[in-house]
Amino acid sequence: MRLRAFLGIGLIVVLSACGGRGDVQVVEAASASSPGTDCGSFTLAAGERISDRAADCFLGAVTAGDAARLEVTFPTVEGDEIVQTYRHEQAGEVVVTTGRDGEAQQTQSCTDPVRASVSFTFGACRQALS
């Protein structure tokens, strides 16, 4: 597996385009403590959606069965920031953590991710055990 080869030699591969807001930086981890592909962290304005490149990065890793992470911050109607972190750690399951700064977070285990208006929707989700 390509990821193991990178981990074994400790290389970090960064893929990015030049400077726009919709760019995504893809980083293959160099240590076993944080394996997988980092598809980026994005702060969206009201009505904005994550870039196709970021969505493709995450969905591609899920489809391939590789570990991946993506973080999206977006505003509520009232203007409060919600942070959603998507982590794919095992085949077919995406862990979604949702919360606001300083408040309790909700964690769900979801399957069958599909590109949606802001980020993703899922075929099924269940509350993750703490």
How is this structure best described in words?
The chain is an alpha+beta fold. The chain has a domain at 39-127. 16% of the residues lie in helices and 39% in strands. The chain has helices spanning 2-9, 52-64; strands at 14-15, 26-28, 37-43, 68-75, 81-90, 93-99, 106-111, 114-115, 120-121, 124-127. Strands 1-2-3-4-5-6-7-10 form an 8-stranded mixed sheet. The chain has a two-stranded antiparallel sheet with strand order 8-9. The radius of gyration is 15 Å and the shape is globular. The N and C termini lie far apart (31 Å). The model is unreliable at 1-33 (pLDDT under 50).
Q: What is the H-and-E element order?
A: HEEEHEEEEEEE
Mean pLDDT: 75
**Overall outline:** globular
Q: N-to-C terminal Cα separation, in Å?
A: 31 Å
Coarse structural class: alpha+beta
What helical percentage do the residues reach?
10-25%
Task: Tally the helices.
Answer: 2
Radius of gyration: 15 Å
